[in-house]
Write a structure and sequence with these properties.
alpha+beta; two-stranded antiparallel ribbon; single chain
């Protein structure tokens, strides 16, 4: 691609973006022109710089708008799933606790609570073999 006649005289041969992986949002400041030799889709290479930026801004704004307007539905679905999972996990915890004798369960809870209150206490989640 670097040596093709079709790329002569172009300021850029493509566009690359960096997206926010956590929020899946597209930021205008995360866009950069790619130069010859980069293998990317080049749908904006024939445009002038102003047109190119306008098209990219429109596309990113559309993407972000769709993301923002659907976030309520997505969160509702995740909340419903979490409520169902919480009930299942609560039942499984109760079943596990019923299988452990009361003295051992109290000792385990005491160790965890002591560690949560003061992290300098021994970590009850570390293997005792690894501690020695």
């Amino acid at each position: 691609m670097a040596d093709t006649k079709s790329s002569r005289g172009l300021a850029a041969t493509g566009v690359g973006t960096v997206d926010c992986a956590r929020h899946e949002m597209k930021l205008a400041s995360g866009v950069g022109d790619l130069q010859k030799g980069k293998k990317v889709a080049t749908s904006t290479k024939e445009m002038g710089p102003g047109s190119c930026r306008d098209i990219l801004d429109d596309n990113f704004s559309d993407w972000n708008w769709k993301k923002v307007t659907t976030v309520g539905h997505i969160l509702l679905c995740k909340l419903k799933e979490a409520v169902g999972s919480a009930k299942m996990h609560s039942n499984e915890l109760a079943e596990l606790q019923s299988a452990i004798d009361a003295v051992s369960l109290y000792a385990c809870k005491s160790e965890v609570e002591a560690w949560e209150d003061d992290s300098s206490q021994p970590n009850p989640f570390e293997s005792c073999i690894a501690c020695k």
